[in-house]
Amino acid sequence: MDIGTIAKELNLKVISASDKMKNIVTGGYTGDLLSDVMANSHEGDIWITRQVHQNIVAIATLKEHAGIILVNSCEPAKNTLEKAIAEKVPILVSDLPVFELTGKIYNLLAAAK
Predict the structure, then answer these.
(1) Can you state the angle between helices 78-87 and 55-63, rounded to 10 degrees?
(2) What is the CATH number of the domain that holds 73?
(3) Among 12, 25, 43, 102, which one is least packed by beta carbons within 10 Å?
């Protein structure tokens, strides 16, 4: 399933890299501890987080994530958005809390298999 389909199904707001909505999501990772995400997430994951600082873009790039979803209507910091645009990393925003959003994405990915 691509990130654009997830965005449409869950009414997510695309903040950056709208041209990357065909990125394939092969799994997901939910977490705010950056070292944990670096150690345990995988290429193709959609990363669900509350973090808004620019280090999220660096980790998403390093781990080759499909994109980042910010929860609870959080908006990325200005320098985060600038870095995401430069690195072509999709950042999306959901008004849902992390637990609910994670469950919905899990169900979408499971149904697509």
Answers:
(1) 20
(2) 3.40.1390.20
(3) 43
Supply the pTM of this predicted model.
0.96
Distance CA 69, CA 49 (A): 6
Which residues form the domain of 62? 3-112
User: Contact, 97 vs 72, CB < 8 A?
Assistant: yes
User: Which run of H or E residues covers position 98?
Assistant: helix 98-112
User: pLDDT band for position 109 (50/70/90)?
Assistant: very high
* Amino acid at position 30, single letter: T
Are 92 and 10 within 8 A, CB to CB?
Answer: no
The 3-state DSSP class for residue 94 equals: coil
Beta bridge partners of 16: 91
Q: If pLDDT is split at 50, 70 and 90, which confidence band does 113 have?
A: confident
* Cα–Cα distance for residue pair 22/38, rounded to 1 Å: 23
**Cross-strand partners of 27:** 45
The token pair that represents 49 in the structure block:
């987080």
